[in-house]
Structures are given as structure tokens and as C-alpha cells.
Amino acid sequence: MLVAPDGEREAVLRYLAGLAERAAAATTGSEVAEVLTEVAAPSTGCCPSPERSS
């Protein structure tokens, strides 16, 4: 789950909507990969990696 600091929910939603627009407009695999990296990169992505349970 993406967690936003108090009061920043709308900004986060706008950011995610922008990412969705970029992904929809992508015409190459590289453009799609850039968006996916921005979303899911382990150390810099906007969505945290799910924790594994042992």
C-alpha cells in the first residue's frame, strides 16, 4: 500500500494519475519500463516492496 504523509493524498493521486497517463501514452517498451521503474524500483520507486513473511 502506498502511504502518503498527512495532507498529501491529493498530490500523490495526481502523481499516480500522471504515471498512468505516461504509461498509456508510451509507444516503446523503454517508455513503459521507465514508468514501471518509477513505480516499483526497490530503492527509489513510489510503492514499497512487499515484505516477505518467513
Keywords:
54% helix, 0% strand, 54 residues
Protein architecture, described:
The chain is mainly alpha-helical. Helix content is 54%, strand content 0%. The chain contains 2 helices and no strands. The protein has helices spanning 9-25, 29-40. Helix 1 (9-25) runs antiparallel to helix 2 (29-40). The chain is flat. The mean pLDDT is 78.
Amount of helix = 40-55%
Write down the Rg: 13 Å
Strand residue content: under 5%
pLDDT < 50 runs, ≥5 residues: none
Mean pLDDT: 78
Query: How would you sum up the major sheet?
Result: none
Determine the structural class based on helices, strands and strand pairing: mainly alpha
- Helix tally? 2
Shape from CA axes?
flat
Number of strands: 0
Order of helices and strands: HH
Distance between the ends: 20 Å
Blueprint of the fold:
Blueprint: H1 9-25, H2 29-40
Entry summary:
The protein has helices spanning 9-25, 29-40. By secondary structure, it is mostly helical.
